[in-house]
What does this fold into?
Amino acid sequence: MDTDSRYLPVETPDAPGRRQFTDAAAAVAQLQHLYAQATGFLLDRFTRALEGNKPVARFRAFYPELRLTVPTHPQVDSRLSFGHVVAPGSYSATITRPDLFGNYLKEQIGLLIRNHGVPVTVGVSDTPMPVHFAVAAQSDLAVPQEGVLDFSLRDIFDVPDLNTMNDDIVNGVAGPMPDGSLHLAAFTAQRIDYSLARLQHYTATAAGHFQNFVLFTNYQFYVDEFEAFARRVLGDPALGYDSFVAPGNQEIREPDAPLATLAKLPQMPTYHLKRANGQGITLVNIGVGPSNAKTATDHIAVLRPHAWLMVGHCAGLRNSQRLGDFVLAHAYLREDHVLDADLPVWIPLPTLSEVQVALQEAVAEVTQLEGYELKRIMRTGTVATIDNRNWELRDTPIHRLSLARAVALDMESATIAANGFRFRVPYGTLLCVSDKPLHGELKLPGMATDFYRTQVANHLLIGIRAMEKLREMPLERIHSRKLRSFNETAFL
It folds into this structure.
């Protein structure tokens, strides 16, 4: 187009004034109204541009904003790890997808109103909404790459901005907002929108299908077992699970309903056993390696799950272990390196007692072994996570592993635990020994025994049972103070 975009008028939707609310549901309804207004405006202008209507203005809409002002030092229940601010001041957060996060927002806003006895304010922020995210939320249209249209997209619409799409808040390096307000939530709206788009790309399932309890695995067998389990429980409505979702957003509600096999699976095939209010279980096959583990957890974290667990294969490092034995991680030797810049290796990763107990109890229930007998098939100790799949071909770091008292080695567990710590998501690890390279039992065809095959089948059931135990706990017990820093955001 010939017109210099610097001189185009800026067109925005009408912005209503800020409103105060003492009812969380009403506040969320207003957030939904403002969000729908902004995305509807951008989608309408974008659609017109695709139809060949030459833009005569720059189109801009803004994310809705939630704001809280606390005039005095708060006196709140010291046992709570979330739902309150730590000092007087003004706090704000940009909000996206209030339809997707409706229950979460009602819960968090309700806690703020109840704990501080002051209203929250809802209005329009000064953070522009990228057209890419608005279009993705409202339609199946794709935003073309730069150069496809006969005008520059960034001249007419706002595009993603890395200044508001980073992890500075969760990494503890973010300063106050330009207006002086402090952060109310762990992620900005743009950062969340970015991850929602990435989740669809990597998992081939929409973010709305993700459940609050997430299992990660590195072996296809667990996927097969998860689908078989899902079909069994869908046949019993009393168990509370109502549907199963596979890649391609295929959703079934009957135990014998067919699921098509996709011609091409995504990088991290994901499956969801759904329950009301997101209280079901999601299984993500992240494959092998810390990079995938970081990528998956970077994006799932914005959904604010209540727990995530690693249930995958590992190398057993002790001669007394057998193929199929379990390892419950009590500590991690971090040599995965993918999070060193965000979470230095000298930072300890605490084990979370609630998760550890749930996993150990689940092992006992599924295997029917208790107490001293449980030691026959399960060890607790340090899990070493490395970034070299063929570590056996190098000078084996046996001395370092021995000093760390490591009992198992894999490529994902410490990454998942470290990102759980960083993102304040309760985490845990239960691995299954698939090889013993230090003792001549390499991961080769034909080495799996009947015991091993039985244990792998039990392994997934243990992960599911542990998640069900965690689901039964109050949120304030699962989300303990161990994962919270000095100056923490009020939102979970």
